[in-house]
Amino acid sequence: MTVVKNALDRALTWVCVALFAALVLDVTWQVFARQVLDSPSAWSEELAKYLFIWLGLFGAALVFGERGHIAVDIAVARAPGRVQLVASVLAQLAILAFTLLTLVWGGYRISALAWDQTLTGLPVNVGWLYLALPLAGVLTAFYTVYHLIRIITGAELAVDPDAELEIS
């Protein structure tokens, strides 16, 4: 499973790099067209909006895979090891439930509902653009299951030992 995760990390990193590069090029064109050519581009603004959404969702999945997300675990970090394990497993299960219900199922439903809607500025249907939700949800669910298995088997610590525990 680690091999799959590492391959997924690399692929997702390159997808995020490509999305970011496309976003930079698109916004650069948008500014150039508006300021230099004095002819604003309607499609570039709409494209930038959707590139930003896709980048945010896939970037969040990638950060989640690295366990780089925000975690307020000061109380758990001071608890005994068994409590840390139980709290971490419960947190992973809650994240998995939210991801499956909201991103995967809800994202699929909204994408299906918007499948026939067209955009004025881009030659694609809205449903294709909403596919970022269930795709990011599947990625996040995979990472959640991966970390859950590693936490339960003891291959990964329940709480990050490098986290700051100082209270002023």
UniProtKB/TrEMBL annotation:
<keyword id="KW-1133">Transmembrane helix</keyword>
<keyword id="KW-0997">Cell inner membrane</keyword>
<feature type="transmembrane region" description="Helical">
    <location>
        <begin position="12"/>
        <end position="32"/>
    </location>
</feature>
<dbReference type="InterPro" id="IPR055348">
    <property type="entry name" value="DctQ"/>
</dbReference>
<keyword id="KW-0812">Transmembrane</keyword>
<keyword id="KW-1003">Cell membrane</keyword>
<feature type="domain" description="Tripartite ATP-independent periplasmic transporters DctQ component">
    <location>
        <begin position="24"/>
        <end position="153"/>
    </location>
</feature>
<dbReference type="GO" id="GO:0015740">
    <property type="term" value="P:C4-dicarboxylate transport"/>
</dbReference>
<comment type="similarity">
    <text>Belongs to the TRAP transporter small permease family.</text>
</comment>
<dbReference type="GO" id="GO:0022857">
    <property type="term" value="F:transmembrane transporter activity"/>
</dbReference>
<keyword id="KW-0472">Membrane</keyword>
<keyword id="KW-0813">Transport</keyword>
<dbReference type="Pfam" id="PF04290">
    <property type="entry name" value="DctQ"/>
</dbReference>
<feature type="transmembrane region" description="Helical">
    <location>
        <begin position="47"/>
        <end position="64"/>
    </location>
</feature>
<protein>
    <recommendedName>
        <fullName>Tripartite ATP-independent periplasmic transporters DctQ component domain-containing protein</fullName>
    </recommendedName>
</protein>
<dbReference type="GO" id="GO:0005886">
    <property type="term" value="C:plasma membrane"/>
</dbReference>
<feature type="transmembrane region" description="Helical">
    <location>
        <begin position="85"/>
        <end position="108"/>
    </location>
</feature>
<feature type="transmembrane region" description="Helical">
    <location>
        <begin position="128"/>
        <end position="149"/>
    </location>
</feature>
<dbReference type="InterPro" id="IPR007387">
    <property type="entry name" value="TRAP_DctQ"/>
</dbReference>
